[in-house]
Design brief:
The complex is a heterodimer of chains A (113) and B (111). Chain A has no helices and eleven strands. With 113 residues, chain A is mainly beta. Chain B is mainly beta. The chains are: A mainly beta (113), B mainly beta (111).
Chain lengths: 113, 111
Amino acid sequence: NAGVTQTPKFQVLKTGQSMTLQCAQDMNHNSMYWYRQDPGMGLRLIYYSASEGTTDKGEVPNGYNVSRLNKREFSLRLESAAPSQTSVYFCASSDRGPYNEQFFGPGTRLTVL
Amino acid sequence: GQQLNQSPQSMFIQEGEDVSMNCTSSSIFNTWLWYKQDPGEGPVLLIALYKAGELTSNGRLTAQFGITRKDSFLNISASIPSDVGIYFCAGLTGTASKLTFGTGTRLQVTL
């Protein structure tokens, strides 16, 4: 039982390049989330998927797109990377229910030059 | 977007000391969660609180859900070196699936 896995762990991009961050969970959770973490800012929600087939914007969605490929996988795409998107990106999942305890992946450290 | 205010921002303590940190909000939350993040890792859930006034322990950790539902406290007793990390509070309101995270408290433990 690996929990939440993310790939890649590290990535360096040039401004304008595109890439997709992958996330998968093996806990049969219904909901999945993408966050970014910047120094001194805590975690901010980019997009989330309450259930398979649905996605919704979070607090900071601009410059990102997501795909809930199936119940296990939720990907985050940067179409044209900008230096402001340099951050650590975390994927999380939770079971549907009243308590919404989220379990996090190890993160992807992205640098945009 | 709203973020929860955590204090202190950072703490330097000696091994064996007790630690207290808190989280405050201008809004009411129905659930409070406390996470710990080790360097280079994702946050890990420590304690979950579901009712106003609730006091919950997990080993050396004790957390409380404030009566006003606008704050929460985390205490760590007899700190050890592996307590080093960043502690985040997070709040959940209504039936939304979205958590609001605090700004974090960075804890350093010296021998």
